[in-house]
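Narrative of activities, Objective 1.

The group set out to show that a structural description can be obtained from nothing but a protein's sequence at a throughput compatible with the screening campaign. Below is one input-output pair from the validation batch, recorded exactly as produced.
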Amino acid sequence: MLHKKYFATSFPFTCRILIEEMKKSITDTRLLIKKIQGGDKKAFQSLIEEYQQLVSHIVFRMVYNKADREDLCQEIFIKVYQNLRGFRFESKISTWIAKIAYNSCINYLQKKKIPLFADRVGGDKTIEDFSGNYILPDSLTEEKDIASRLQTEIAKMDPPSRTILTLYHLEEMSYIEISQIMGIPQGTVKSYLFRARKKLREKLMSKYQKEEIWHTDI
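Output recorded for this entry:
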């Protein structure tokens, strides 16, 4: 059994390591951005590689048209490059990029006259249309099948609900970060997240057996 003295001595040491790693990460990000601001194209490519998954998560959650998704992702990173000189390190670079992605998607939906708070209706759409690239093969394990069902039902929700669920659960962002990205108060973020979870849980309960989904983290 580990003695209490071990924790007393090791815990501060662990904290110091974590703090040093955070400082190094912040320093590395600053250096990368400075290089991009100086015209280093390879540095910008590194930035794209690091944050393309974040941008894709937001775009794929908010935009249904597959043909427009890739163009929109490219447009977002063009905006990132064009506006990076004005980045003042007042927030995380991930939060700043996510905000550009979210606003770009909102502009896209407004131009296409797609209702922002309307749930997607079935009609003649297939499961693949609902969930884009997130649907999983039926031959996978039961756990992945449940994940597939979650993804399918999330894809049918309104864009703000899909975005909040994605940023909070998939990207593990805080209420503060989501508030900055979506331009809404933290209290509203919490309220939207609560309603989105409740709506998702109700949909799942109405379509699938309770014992299949009771243990999922919604």
